[in-house]
Amino acid sequence: MKVICGPTGLDFDALHGDLNVLLYGRNGGEDYGTAGAAMVEVLHRRRLAPHERAWDFLSIALAVTACDSAGHRARSSDGWTREFELSIAVADPAFWATQVVTLEELLRFLTTDRWRITFIPGARYPDEPASVAHPDQDCITLLSGGLDSFIGALDLVAKGRRPFAVSQSVRGDAEKQRGLVAVVGGGVEHLQLNHNALVPDPENPPSQRARSIAFFAHGVLAATTLRRYVDGDDVSLFVCENGFISLNPPLTALRLGSLSTRTSHPVVLALIQRCLDAAGLRIRLENPYAYCTKGEMLIAAIRQDDLRRHAHGTTSCGRFKRFGYRHCGRCLPCLIRRAAFQAWKVHDRTEYVYQDLSIDDPEHAGSDDVRAAGMAVAEVAEVGIDQWLGVSLSAPLLGTTRPELRSVASRGLAEVERFLRARRVR
Fold it and tell me: In angstroms, rounded to a whole number, what is the distance separating the alpha carbons of residues 82 and 126?
C-alpha cells in the first residue's frame, strides 16, 4: 500500500499514492485521509511553539498512525503482515533520510509489518504565536488515564517534580484524564491532543499496534516548548508503565505476532531515543517502573490515600470502548490490573463486565485471554521461565537489562497466577 502524507498544497496527484493523507488539515476530499487536524488550533490557543524537528517527528507519527488505521491485515498475502510504502512531507527531508533504517526497524518491531519510508519536502508548520508561552514545568509525563501513568504522576509530584502532563485525548477518557490531573495537583499543566487519524475504509476492528508513536510524539512536541528546554537543558519525558506489560511476553506461542502489543517495550523506547538523539532533541525517555510489576507499583506508591480513593477510576481495559466504556475484566490488561489490586490488598472498586471468572463457560474462564494466562502459568511450571520467555529477551538493544526484565516477567506472571487461583479459575 502506497501512502502519501503531507499538508494542504502538496501535489498529491504527482506522487500517485493508493491513499493520500492530509496532515493538519480538514478538507482533502472524500477519498483522502486526515490526521492532526485540531492540533494546530490547540497549540495556538496555548501559545506553544514547538521545535521544527519535533513537528517533523509528529508528522512521521501521524503518517504511521494513518497507515495503521488504513491497512487491512486480512487482505495481506499471509493474512497478517501488511506492507506500507510511506512518503512523508517534512521540513528537513535530508536529515530524516539518515534515520530511515532506525525508523523502519522501530515500525517493524512495533507493528510486525513491513515498511519502506521516504521523506519529501513540502511540510508547512504554523508560525510562532505573537506571544509565546514557555511553561516552567521541569519534565513531561504521559498521562493516558491508566493506572500506571496516574501512579507515575502522583509519585513525580510527591518527589518534588513539576510535570507537564500530556494526554492522547480520546472519547471515554478525556474527562477522566482532566479529573486525574486535578487529583495529582502540584501545579501540573495539562495538554490534551488527539491524532484524529481518519481514513476511508478503515480496518475494523481498528488496529492500535502503532498507537504509542503518536503519544510519544505529543510528549516530544510539548517537551520542546518548556522554558527548561528553550534555556538549553535536557528534558525528561516519563513513560510510566509496569515492566510486565511493557515487555508483554506472548502468553502462548500462538500469540507471538497477533496479540502481544509493544507500545512501551524497552526496544521501542531505545529506538525512539536513538532518533531523538540524532535529531538533536534534548529529550530523555524514562520509565521509572521498567522493573516493577503493577502490584509492586501500587504497593510502593507514595501517595497511598489519593491512590486508594481514585485508582478505581482509571482505565486499563484493552476493550474499554467495545464494552461501552467499561472494563471487560477478562482481557490481559484487566487480568494484570485485577491481580495488582489483589497484591496491593486493597478492595478493587472497578466495575467489570465479566466479574466472576470462575464461571466455566466461553465468556468467563474459557475466554481467550483467561485461557492463555492459565496456559502460560502451566507452561512456566512445567518448563521454567526461560523457556517460556523464549526469544522475548533476545533483542540486542536490551543489553545488560535482561536479568531485570526476566525477573519482572516472572514476578508479573506470578501475580496473575495468584489472582487466577484466588478466583478459582481452572
Answer: 33
| Alpha-carbon gap, residue 192 to 215, rounded angstroms | 10
Q: Per-domain residue ranges for the chain?
A: 2-120, 139-193+207-286, 313-422
Q: Scanning the structure block, which residue is given the C-alpha cell 522475548?
A: 392
- On the 0-12 / 13-18 / 19+ scale of CB atoms within 10 A, 57 is buried
Name the phi and psi angles at 298, rounded to 5: -65, -45
Q: SS3 for 127?
A: coil
Closest CA to 90 of 111, 117, 121: 121
Measure CA of the first residue to CA of the last residue in the chain; give whole Å.
44
Question: What is the mean pLDDT for each group of 10 consecutive residues in the chain (426 residues)?
Answer: 95 94 87 92 95 98 94 87 96 98 96 95 92 96 96 98 93 86 94 93 80 93 98 98 93 56 90 98 98 98 98 92 92 96 98 96 94 94 93 90 96 97 90
| CATH 2.70.70.10 is right for the domain spanning 139-193+207-286 | no
Burial level of 127, CB count in 10 A (0-12/13-18/19+)?
exposed
H or E segment and range at residue 115: strand 114-120
Residue among 384, 375, 414, 403 at smallest CA distance from 295 = 414
What is the C-alpha to C-alpha distance for residues 112 and 107, in angstroms, rounded to an integer? 7
Would you put residue 143 in left (φ > 0), alpha (ψ -120 to 50) or beta? Answer: beta
Question: Is the overall model pTM greater than 0.90, yes or no?
Answer: yes
Spatial contact of 146 and 316, defined as CB atoms under 8 Å apart? yes
Among 130, 195, 122, 186, which Cα is nearest to 159's? 186
Count the Cβ atoms, other than its own, within 10 Å of residue 349. Answer: 11
